[in-house]
């Protein structure tokens, strides 16, 4: 019997029908695949049946990593390590497909790391990822909604995002206390030309630091009340951070970069 470790945010997906639907979301045969947090290998087995060209998994739990090595032998490459400390873009020489039932406690950190480290040449052609539903709702949120915020703006900058389905706790072991959501991310062909994602992080952090407050204070903090910028982007300082659309945040970040260059 597997003893789960709460500190690693382990909730293993055990619903066979959902597992099958996940591997059928993209073509795997002859492709290079990376799985994050394979756990007991439920999804791993189904991915192998689809005959990937190369298959690597990252598992932080020492005991589970050892079991994966024993169970799958040379069929997969097992990296026993922390995904936050691994440069995924260096694991393969070609674009890959990524599957992950991400630990709830670090899921936003993983996604943010990948996005902020992205270059114009994407190292993946799709990410098929499981999140706590509350986090997924923030990722796919629309402008003017309470879920809309930093994670939305950052996620949608370079990626198209599609929600596949919500998953109830009964589909996992142990059962989490919340619902989960499955999202698919694919690279955008065109995205706003921001030089450094860290600047987008900074701009959105300042604006959403007090999301219920009006825009005047964060705008003045960043741009010293520059009326020219207000006129250029037609910004009403009486609005709140959630009222500005994605494009405006990208344009403000670009303006910030231009002022600093």
Textual characterization of the structure:
- The longest helix has 15 residues, at 246-260.
- The model has no long low-confidence stretch (mean pLDDT 93).
- The relative contact order is 0.12.
- The strands form 2 sheets. A 7-stranded mixed sheet has the order 4-3-2-5-6-9-7. The protein has a two-stranded antiparallel ribbon with strand order 1-8.
- The termini are far apart.
- It folds into 2 domains: 6-187, Vaccinia Virus protein VP39 (Rossmann fold, 3-Layer(aba) Sandwich), CATH 3.40.50; 197-260, rRNA adenine dimethylase, C-terminal domain (Helicase, Ruva Protein, domain 3), CATH 1.10.8.100.
- With 261 residues, it is of the alpha/beta class.
- Helix content is 36%, strand content 19%.
Structural features:
261 residues, 7-stranded mixed beta sheet, Helicase, Ruva Protein, domain 3, 19% strand, 2 domains, alpha/beta, Rossmann fold, two-stranded antiparallel sheet, 9 strands, 10 helices, elongated
CATH topology of the largest domain: Rossmann fold
Main sheet record: 7 strands, mixed
* Total E-strand runs: 9
CATH superfamily of the largest domain, please? Vaccinia Virus protein VP39
Q: What's the overall geometry? A: elongated
Q: What is the arithmetic mean of pLDDT?
A: 93
Question: Which CATH C-level class of the largest domain is it?
Answer: Alpha Beta
> What is the SS-derived class?
alpha/beta
**Secondary-structure arrangement, i.e. CATH architecture of the largest domain:** 3-Layer(aba) Sandwich
